[in-house]
């Protein structure tokens, strides 16, 4: 069945059905026509016969009355011709033919045939088949003369049979057959013409239906001879246009869609992130990128449609390769070094597939971890420093304590010296721990200040006295030059004292033996400038900004050998800033440094 | 029979520690030469052979490992046993150092001077 259906295409089936109905209609029509023709012929025959009856009856009556009977035979012969009768006869009262169109039967007795009764007005008759198998309608009209029966007139007509009907019809056959056939054929052709495009469209649609679900539907143009075909061709053209349109167009449409669909809050939320978020398609083209991505990559134009890998390769050629080599089906994280107009930066990039496979594209996140990296390296450096700074005094304390405990070979002078060393090392440890505590309180912001009215000159003189032993130990010359007019200022005495001691301590620490350290202070209007000047190792120009950073330790080996947490200077500056002042630094490597704390008096 | 006094070169930048190391080694009968950093130690070692070198790792100018590299390349102290003192035990693996530079022993700060002394005696004794 199905194969038959497949062979009989859509238009053929329609035409076959059309022909079937047409043939049915023609047959019915032909049959009806035959019946009508037969009925017509029959009534024609009967009418022909009976139209003769009245006249013939009168003429025969007249003949009988006249008694001659000579014209009787002539009359029936004439009637047969005029009425197209099978035969015609006159029968006398005794049932014998007195006249007959068949002269052999004159005088013969009339035979009553067997058949069905007919009636036409007052005239009765019989229908029967004669010896020649022809259907004969025989009508008998009684003849009466002076109210007395004087025999009857018999007229017989041949009822038209099927052969006759066909014979009659065959005359019209060329018209009756060829005409309808021509019309049917014409109808078929027209039907075919109308259904062919529909069939082709149906075929194309079936082909599209058989395509896999994600394939792009495509169609063939067909002959444009109907409106349906023209319409279909337009659909095909449009489809082709759609398929041919470039990926960029598709991307832009997608973007429009994304803007429409994800517009509003979601997009605004993504745009507001400081972390860069980008979505790329399977080819790595950016479908969406928030502002942070552009900013992090130092691009200030739209990134959509560009290939992110290429962008990365352009900004950081060495590092991008690592990410490119990673599997596209799992999350890949890499770090990227790039130099930008605002300095070298480190970016952390992660790329994860959107769905289980990479075909759906990827979501990227980009974060600037420059600061994090710096902090990490400072922290590592601090841990380094702290380990060293803790272990060195500990090593000394342990070594000296153990040596003392052994007792032998240590004379009294050495015992005293060792104890002093242990004390000094313990102090060093304590100072380091103090620094750590200060910085941790600075870290949590608990470094509050309590301002009181302070005589600045007296405070600085106290500080100078406090650090004098330190200067002596470091074998540096210590000079104090304080202005007479320093007056009072509202300061946190302990904090400022700590700050200045720290600066002086640094000066002593980094000034070689024989150098000099100067503490000077002057007042300019509402500001007090406290200056700590040394002739020490100095600070390289590139490190001038860094010395105030937490955990920073100079690369200068002359600094490296000294104890330091990298916390003192950040702490000192924080104290100055808490007083709404600041610390500024001027230094030259190898010649010395000058730290100036500027504090407002109120 | 009186053996000749064994010589030890001590390289340590921390003065107090240098002092106590020298004291401990002297107590064990060694003759000690002290240097304030790797560079100074190298100057001594280049000039004369020592029976033992005790060196701090973290020193200015020349680190302990740098010093050992130079010693191994020298004529005077190519085979001298070395005790490395370090505050960074985690970073320097003794096995690797032994393999590469022939570091004989490593002591982590804080260490015991008595232990250093016995270690020194052991190392020098092995050579004799």
How many DSSP H or I helices of chain A?
17
**C-alpha-based Rg of chain B, rounded:** 13 Å
**Span of the ends, CA to CA of chain B:** 14 Å
Major sheet characteristics of chain A: 6 strands, antiparallel
Unreliable segments of 5+ consecutive residues of chain B: none
3D architecture notes:
The complex is a heterodimer of chains A (602) and B (128). Chain A is an alpha+beta fold and 602 residues long. Helices cover 50% and strands 21% of the residues of chain A. Chain A has helices spanning 2-7, 10-66, 72-83, 162-170, 173-209, 227-244, 247-261, 265-272, 291-296, 308-315, 317-325, 370-406, 412-443, 456-473, 493-509, 557-560, 568-578, and strands at residues 87-91, 97-100, 116-120, 123-129, 135-145, 148-158, 276-280, 286-289, 332-340, 343-353, 362-368, 452-455, 477-482, 488-491, 516-524, 527-534, 582-588, 592-600. In chain A, strand 5 and strand 6 form a beta hairpin. With 128 residues, chain B is of the alpha/beta class. A 5-stranded parallel beta sheet of chain B has the order 2-1-3-4-5, sandwiched between helices. In chain B, helix 1 links the parallel strand 1 (7-11) and strand 2. The model of chain B has no long low-confidence stretch (mean pLDDT 85). The chains are: A alpha+beta (602), B alpha/beta (128).
Features:
heterodimer, A: 602 residues, alpha+beta, six-stranded antiparallel β-sheet, five-stranded antiparallel β-sheet, 17 helices, 18 strands, 50% helix, disordered N terminus, B: 128 residues, alpha/beta, 19% strand, globular
Which helices and strands occur, and which strands form pairs?
The complex is a heterodimer of chains A (602) and B (128).
Chain A: H1 2-7, H2 10-66, H3 72-83, E1 87-91, E2 97-100, E3 116-120, E4 123-129, E5 135-145, E6 148-158, H4 162-170, H5 173-209, H6 227-244, H7 247-261, H8 265-272, E7 276-280, E8 286-289, H9 291-296, H10 308-315, H11 317-325, E9 332-340, E10 343-353, E11 362-368, H12 370-406, H13 412-443, E12 452-455, H14 456-473, E13 477-482, E14 488-491, H15 493-509, E15 516-524, E16 527-534, H16 557-560, H17 568-578, E17 582-588, E18 592-600
Parallel strand pairs in A: 13-15
Antiparallel strand pairs in A: 1-2, 1-6, 3-4, 4-5, 5-6, 7-8, 7-11, 9-10, 10-11, 12-14, 15-16, 16-18, 17-18
Chain B: E1 7-11, H1 15-27, E2 31-35, H2 38-47, E3 52-56, H3 64-73, E4 82-86, H4 94-101, E5 105-108, H5 113-127
Parallel strand pairs in B: 1-2, 1-3, 3-4, 4-5
């Amino acid at each position: 069945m199905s194969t038959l259906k497949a062979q009989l295409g859509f238009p053929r089936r329609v035409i076959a059905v059309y022909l079937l109905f047409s043939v049915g209609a023609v047959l019915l029509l032909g049959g009806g026509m035959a019946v009508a023709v037969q009925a017509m012929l029959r009534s024609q025959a009967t009418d022909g016969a009976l139209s003769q009856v009245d006249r013939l009856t009168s003429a025969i009556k007249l003949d009988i009355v006249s008694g001659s009977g000579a014209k009787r035979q002539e009359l029936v012969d004439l009637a047969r011709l005029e009425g197209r009768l099978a035969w015609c006869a006159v029968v006398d009262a005794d049932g014998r033919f007195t006249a007959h169109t068949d002269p052999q039967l004159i005088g013969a007795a009339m035979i009553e045939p067997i058949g069905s009764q007919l009636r036409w007005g007052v005239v009765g008759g019989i229908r029967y088949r004669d010896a020649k198998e022809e259907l004969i309608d025989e009508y008998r009209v009684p003849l009466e003369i002076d109210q007395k029966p004087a025999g009857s007139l018999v007229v017989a007509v041949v009822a038209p049979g099927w052969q006759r009907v066909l014979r009659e019809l065959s005359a019209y056959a060329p018209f009756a057959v060829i005409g309808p056939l021509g019309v049917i054929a014409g109808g078929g052709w027209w039907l075919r013409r109308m259904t062919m495009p529909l069939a082709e469209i149906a075929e194309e649609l079936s082909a599209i239906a058989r395509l896999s679900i994600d394939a792009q539907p495509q169609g063939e143009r067909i002959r444009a001879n109907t409106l349906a075909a023209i319409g279909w061709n337009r659909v095909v053209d449009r489809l082709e246009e759609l398929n041919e349109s470039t990926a960029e167009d598709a991307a832009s449409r997608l973007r429009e869609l994304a803007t429409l669909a994800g517009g509003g809050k979601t997009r605004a939320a993504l745009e507001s992130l400081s972390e860069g978020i980008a979505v790329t398609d399977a080819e790595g083209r950016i479908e969406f990128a928030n502002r942070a991505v552009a900013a992090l990559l130092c691009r200030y134009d739209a990134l959509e449609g560009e290939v992110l890998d290429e962008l990365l390769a352009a900004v950081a050629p060495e590092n991008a390769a690592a990410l490119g080599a990673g599997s596209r089906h799992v999350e890949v994280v890499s770090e990227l070094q790039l130099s930008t107009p605002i300095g070298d930066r480190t970016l952390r990039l992660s790329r994860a597939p959107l769905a289980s496979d990479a075909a759906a594209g990827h979501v990227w996140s980009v974060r600037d971890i420059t600061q994090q990296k710096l902090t990490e390296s400072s922290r590592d450096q601090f841990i380094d420093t702290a380990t060293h700074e803790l272990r060195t005094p500990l090593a000394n304390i342990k070594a000296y304590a153990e040596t003392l405990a052994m007792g032998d070979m240590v004379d009294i002078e050495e015992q005293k010296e060792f104890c002093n060393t242990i004390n000094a090392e313990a102090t060093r440890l304590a100072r380091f721990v103090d620094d750590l505590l200060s910085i941790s309180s600075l870290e949590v912001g608990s470094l509050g200040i309590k301002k009181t009215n302070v005589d600045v000159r007296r405070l600085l003189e106290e500080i100078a006295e406090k650090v004098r032993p330190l200067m002596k130990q470091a074998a540096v010359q210590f000079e104090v030059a304080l202005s007479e007019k320093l007056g009072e200022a509202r300061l946190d005495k302990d904090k400022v004292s700590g700050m200045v001691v720290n600066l002086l301590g640094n000066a002593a620490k980094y000034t070689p033996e024989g150098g000099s350290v100067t503490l000077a202070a002057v007042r300019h209007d509402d500001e007090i400038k406290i200056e700590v000047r040394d002739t020490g190792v100095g600070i390289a120009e590139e490190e001038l900004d860094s010395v105030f950073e937490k955990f920073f330790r100079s690369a200068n080996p002359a600094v490296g050998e000294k104890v330091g947490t990298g916390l003192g200077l950040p702490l000192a500056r924080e104290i100055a800033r808490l007083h709404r002042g600041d610390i500024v630094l001027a230094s030259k490597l190898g010649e010395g440094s000058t730290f100036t704390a500027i504090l407002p008096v109120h | 029979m009186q053996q000749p006094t064994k010589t030890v070169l001590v390289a340590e930048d921390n003065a107090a520690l240098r002092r106590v190391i020298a004291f401990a080694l002297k107590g064990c009968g060694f003759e000690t030469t002290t240097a304030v950093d790797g560079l100074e130690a190298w100057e001594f070692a280049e000039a004369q052979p020592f029976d033992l070198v005790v060196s701090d790792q973290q020193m200015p100018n020349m680190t302990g490992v740098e010093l050992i590299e130079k010693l191994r390349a020298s004529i005077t102290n190519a085979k001298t046993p070395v005790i490395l003192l370090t505050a960074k035990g985690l970073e320097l693996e003794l096995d690797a150092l032994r393999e590469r530079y022939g570091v004989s022993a490593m002591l982590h700060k804080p260490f015991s001077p008595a232990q250093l002394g016995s270690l020194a005696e052991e190392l020098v004794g092995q050579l004799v």
